[in-house]
Each structure stands twice: as C-alpha cells, then as structure tokens.
Amino acid sequence: MKVHVDQERCQGHTLCAMIAPKAFELSEIDGHSSPVDENVADDQEEQVREAVHSCPERAITLTE
Ligand code: F3S
C-alpha cells in the first residue's frame, strides 16, 4: 500500500501526524504533512487508513 499527500490540499491540520506519527512528518517550514515513507509498513496500515479519513481537506490518498 502506498500513501500520498497532496501538497496543494494539505492545510497543516496535523490530524494525520497525531493519528499516525510514525507514518507522517510535518514540515517545520509550512506545517504540511508528507509520508515518512510512501510505502506503508504493514503495522502502520490501520493508522494510516484512519488518518486518511481524519483529514478535513481529503489531502491523503492511498493506492494498493
Ligand atoms: Fe495536512 Fe490533512 Fe494532515 S490537512 S497535515 S494531510 S490532516
């Protein structure tokens, strides 16, 4: 499973990084989120799926 954060949509709400802190990192410059690794580790899948649903901007997408 791969994860992508649309930098145009991300508004830095930080929910993704709170729900899945091992999977997302926030930029110190603009606060935007990006995946730590676009290939989601098996033990992170559940949290990453939760993060996708939590993002108010719908900025996070998954591909199988
Ligand atoms: Fe950005 Fe959504 Fe996370 S707006 S910081 S991807 S919760």
Report on this model:
This protein has 64 residues and is α+β, with helices and mostly antiparallel strands. The chain has a single domain (2-63), classed as Alpha-Beta Plaits (2-Layer Sandwich). The protein has helices at 15-19, 45-54; strands at residues 2-5, 24-26, 33-35, 60-63. The strands form 2 sheets. It has a two-stranded antiparallel sheet. The chain starts with a strand and ends with a strand. FE3-S4 cluster binds at residues 5, 10-16, 33, 55, 57, 59-60. FE3-S4 cluster is lined by residues 5, 10-16, 33, 55, 57, 59-60. GO terms for molecular function: 3 iron, 4 sulfur cluster binding; electron transfer activity; iron ion binding. InterPro entries: 3Fe4S_ferredoxin, Fe-S_cluster_ET. It holds the Pfam family Fer4_15.
**Which word captures the global form?**
globular
Return the domain count: 1
Q: What's the helical proportion of residues?
A: 10-25%
Mean pLDDT: 98
The overall strand count is: 4
CATH fold description: Alpha-Beta Plaits
Strand residues, percent: 15-25%
Terminal Cα span: 4 Å
Largest beta sheet: what is the strand line-up? 1-4
Regarding CATH, which class?
A: Alpha Beta
Q: How many separate helices? A: 2
CATH architecture: 2-Layer Sandwich
Topology order in helix (H) and strand (E) letters: EHEEHE
Give the C-alpha Rg.
10 Å
The assigned structural class equals alpha+beta
Which hetero compounds are present in the coordinates?
A: FE3-S4 cluster
Keywords: 3Fe-4S, Electron transport, Iron, Iron-sulfur, Metal-binding, Transport
Protein name: Ferredoxin
Function: Ferredoxins are iron-sulfur proteins that transfer electrons in a wide variety of metabolic reactions.
Cofactor: [3Fe-4S] cluster
